[in-house]
Amino acid sequence: MPDSVLPFFSRSYEEARDKFLLLSKKHGAYSCSYKHPSACAPNGAPLTLETAWIGPRDAKNVMVMVSGTHGPEAYTGAAIQLNWLNGHKGFPSSSMAMLIIHGANPYGWAHSSRTTENNVDLNRNFVESYATDTCSQLTQQVQELLCSSRSKGPRFKRIFIGLIKLLLSDGITKVVNEISNGQYTHAEGIGYGGDSAEWANLTIRAILDEHLKQADNVTIIDWHTGIGRYGEPCFLCFDEPYSEEYQRARSCWGAGIDKSNVGYSSGQRPDYQGLLINAARDIAQGFGAKTTTAVIEFGTYANLKMLKGLLIDRWLRYHHDKENLKISAKLQTQMLRLFYPQDLRWRTSVLQHSETIISQSLTALNTDDAS
Ligand SMILES: [Zn+2]
Q1: Please, what is the end-to-end C-alpha distance for the chain in angstroms?
Q2: Which terminal CB of the chain, N or C, has fewer other CB atoms within 10 Å?
Q3: What is the CA radius of gyration of the chain?
Q4: DSSP β-bridge partners for residue 96
Q5: What is the pLDDT of residues 189-220, one digit of tens each?
Q6: Which CATH class is domain 3-131+200-370?
Q7: Would the pLDDT of 229 be above 70?
Q8: What's residue 327's pLDDT?
Q9: What is the 230 CA–ligand 1 centroid distance (Å)?
Q10: Ligand 1 geometric centre to CA of 69 (Å)
Q11: What is the distance in A from the centroid of ligand 1 to the CA of 58?
Q12: Long-range contacts made by residues 169-173, C-beta under 8 angstroms, separation at least 24?
């Protein structure tokens, strides 16, 4: 396995940011840095969301790559961005540019948490309105269960047994939806979408508003990890099947687009609310651009193990204290590795697949221009 992939995968938020800034500068990128107005890194250092625009400022065909919507997944998205930057030698046409959004949720990244400074899942925060007053009985039951904790960590056994009971009474689709869709009533729960737009949400919207005004064709990828087969890409296209946008995604990335549901234990994709990718698509379309969009996940471990990761993430936020530093450190590493495997084979596979996917995206953008 090539050791050459290793430099692209960082060990900390700061290390990744430094590498990104250095390489962006080398490529003469138009870069912007957005400082978080209130939150800091664990060592007190400022948190920033960085962008780099590579290519002519008036490019009509623009590709956007987002990393780090969910904190620990940022390492992989950032490695993909860095690897592309490192190998970039020019675009297939002159009216083409790449916008890189590096570390969409810098708080989550620096603090090794999937959520923002307000325990908000940023990828459930891009909704039109935040309905915080209605809560179904199932939401209540699921959230109470998921939050079962003790001083040593989440009560895994109790939670899993409780979930099995709910699966038997309510059916797998309903329960998986309940865990995954996003909820707006339990601020300390799992999958909380917030009660207003997060700083990261507003910042990303402002970045897209600034950069996409002139664009005619926009391709957007939001890189994630945790769904799908180990080290393999899993495409999640949220456009209506067989719409123009969907067909474009399919001709760009292939039949993988049709397999959007394969990675889910219920066999059906949850009805996610407040996705960043849909908000980004709507902004681009608002400027009159044709869009091709997907969330692309790289699979890590089985769904049940990943649920354990979500439970640990929440526990660390609300139950981590001076009395349990050792156990917290152990759980934090466990959670990080679930979303960011150290395995060289996994990392190599991710970068190889991402190179193909980005190349397909740029080729399709070039074709869109010609059509
Ligand atoms: Zn994610």
Answers
A1: 41
A2: C
A3: 20
A4: 61
A5: 999 999 999 999 999 999 999 999 999 999 99
A6: alpha beta
A7: yes
A8: 92
A9: 15
A10: 6
A11: 31
A12: 170/138, 172/265, 172/266, 173/266, 173/268
